[in-house]
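A common beginner's mistake is to predict each chain separately and then try to dock the pieces by hand. The better habit, illustrated here, is to supply every component at once so that their relative placement is modeled jointly.
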Amino acid sequence: MTVETTELSLPSRIDTVATAAAAVAEFISRSGISDDAAFGIDMAVREAVTNAVLHGNSQDETKVVDITLKSSPEAVEISVHDQGPGFNPSEVPDPTAAENILKTSGRGIFFMRSFMDEVDWSIRPGGGTTVRMVKRR
Amino acid sequence: MAELNIDERQAGDVTVLDMNGKITIGEGSVALRTAIRRLLEEGKKRILLNLAGVGYIDSSGIGELVSSYTAIGKDGGQLKLLNLTQKLQDLLTITKLLTVFDVYESEAEALNSFK
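With all components supplied together, the output reads:
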């Protein structure tokens, strides 16, 4: 298997979440990944793109969400880049802590970490935040 | 076709919502919120969500379930869940929400639990 890469640039709208998920589903269907792993990747991508649209770009349609998909013999890697100011993931409260269980938001990053093998964030030199997620085969 | 279809039926004083589709950010979450608000306005406070047809839910949808649960509880009512798919059950397990929601696999058992 060779390394395959696809790049997408999508507007900062809620419907971009479904567009991105469909594109990722099509991409990973060619990569021979298991159904369980595909479910987890789908969840993680939806949450990452939701965060990019809502929190990163604040639904500002002059800003875009860039997504890079890479498939290699070892793993599938997905990067989602927004043009927002960034945040500190260590400051995001644990949604499973007793005081947070009944909160109506704050589970997206938890799902990303639950379903992917690696999740990390970085600030791009030109601005914006990139979340990189890896699912190993 | 709508992202989430909700059919309402009455079983005694319990309102059952048969849900089919996805509860995700945008249309699906809004459809659930609208349905619950309308039932509360109509004074229907005993609500059973039949989730057998919900194949997918994201964090926004789970947040909407929590929001529904607390809104109904504050109004003196009860929200219970029926027929979770394995995926939804897994998500509620890892978020520890399975300890919060009253969940049933049998509709008769669920309806009896409201009495």
